Amino acid sequence: MPAERKAAAPSSVTFERGADSSLTVHLSGVWRMRHGLPTGDLLNRELMRTGEVRTGEIRRVVFEAGDLADWDSGLLVFVTRAIETCKARNLDTDISGLPAGVKRLIDLAEAVPENKEAETKADRRPFVERVGRATINYFDGLDEFVAFLGALAIAFGRLITGHARFRRVDLMIEIQDCGARAFGIVTLISFLVGVILAFMGAVQLQQFGASIYVADLVGIGMVRDMGAMMTAIIMAGRTGAAFAAQLGSMKVTQEIDALTTMGLAPMEFLVLPRVLALVLMMPLLCVYSDMLGILGGAAVGAGMLNISLGSYMRETFAAIELGGVFGGIFKATVYGAIIGTAGCLRGFQCGSSSSAVGDAATSAVVTGIVYVVVACGLFAVLFNILGL
Amino acid sequence: MSEIQSIQTARPRTESAEPDIVVRDLTMAYGDFVLMRNLNFVVKRSAVFIIMGGSGCGKSTLLRHLLGLKAPASGEILYGNLNFTHARPEAREQQLRRFGVLYQGGALWSSMTLAENIGLPLEEFTDLSGAEIREVASLKLSLVGLKGFEDYYPSQISGGMQKRAGLARAIALDPEILFFDEPSAGLDPISSRLLDELILEIRDSLGATIVVVTHELASIFAIGDDSIFLDADSHTAIAQGNPRELLEHSADPRVRRFLTRGAEGEPEAAQGGKAGK
Q: The pTM is what?
């Protein structure tokens, strides 16, 4: 490309009418993209303005670049756009006046005609139709979810009959990862949730001198719902996302295909140990979370309300009943199954790019938390009916 | 010990021309979009069969159909006497164990070492002890020139080595049919030639049938006994046969153009690329 000339004029376009019903387009100055360019529509506007095309006064467009100082792809964009305009209006074009490099690049760009099939059309359907299609797609997704649950159930069936193929060591690694390694964050969050519950209760209960009932509030709250719920939300963000990202990237690198073609069912080999590990560890984490929450409440009781640790604990043990504890543990187990399934499902549905892996992880967390909250609501109604 | 023997030594297979894979009227589609229709071909036992064609014509998709990873829109695939497309899941799984597949990027399981990668199929499908499995894994690694890398993780070795390790895993169970997806993609010319030689060596020693998806001309002519040429525009196969013979005798300009790197065939299109030189 031509060497850059200093202090050259900026890019400009002028039009000149020739005798032989031609329009000459003079391109001059520096045509570089970073300096900004005249719009490619300029020729079209000029032709429209005068109306000379309709009357047949102009039949040919000639490009001249005598005063062109410097150019890059910006010039190319302008010229190709102008040529297209001419083609659309059945005008002849003459590009012999352009630099040799520009001519070569234009030839190259026109060598392969535009592929009309390849052009993805923007979705210009009416609003109602788009809503309808989105709804149908949503229910198609539901199909996939049910099919996944079915396959998982079959895999669990094979596990019970002892036919499932997976490595015991994988299960142990997953148990370590979603059990022992989750202790730190569960400790912190559960303790703080206990503290917050106690504070909220204390402000009200203090007003009529019933501070001791803070122990009841925290104990029952943690054991029945908050322990399981907080653990579930932590695990959805921590482990559910990890499952989706692991399986998603395994899908991208064809590792899942490699398992399938080896005759090892990914559902048994990858999903089973992960879901199983969560289902086994969630109840334990829930019990741990309950204890830490109560401890958090006790800390507030002792520090703010002048309740001794002994009387706080006595009050707590009097308040909570075994049914409530087991209810919480049962809920945690179900939440574990939901989070594990959502994580693995989103991992399996992952597309084949690195951004798809991120989407899968995000979607796993969202799906996991949504279904956990829905299940929590259902449990509340169900337990109420059963009088638990 | 007798089991180790049977795994290490080549399974004697009769060198006959009976077909191993038969594809009948196969149509491949993604939703409503038909990628290829009316594919009919036969892969003979112990042959090196090449699936070739331009980028995006459906070579890898055809491979996914052959492996049962994708269901045909219509038509069927037969392995020997087994109708793979309509077989029961157990029968399909049985057939899958006779396959070895080398995926484009190797597809080694990243959470396992090379020895564990190769050992996994042995662990699941044979009664070998841990020590014996390790021994077989070492042997397979030495066959692909990776002896001593048993305890490396896939991320610790280069792309070319990952591919060779993938090959070692593919031949772990001495497969009857080996599938290769773009074996030379991402390899330098010398490694790529060594891999071709390895493929021929495996064919000769194990008597395996080999199916290779590739657009690498050097490989196609070096190892191909038979081939099918897929054309993206006409959505079907436009040539079949020995690639060297296709080069000499094919009259189809699209095939000639492909096999000569665009030097021959379809003059107007070839000119377009050279205009202005």
A: 0.78
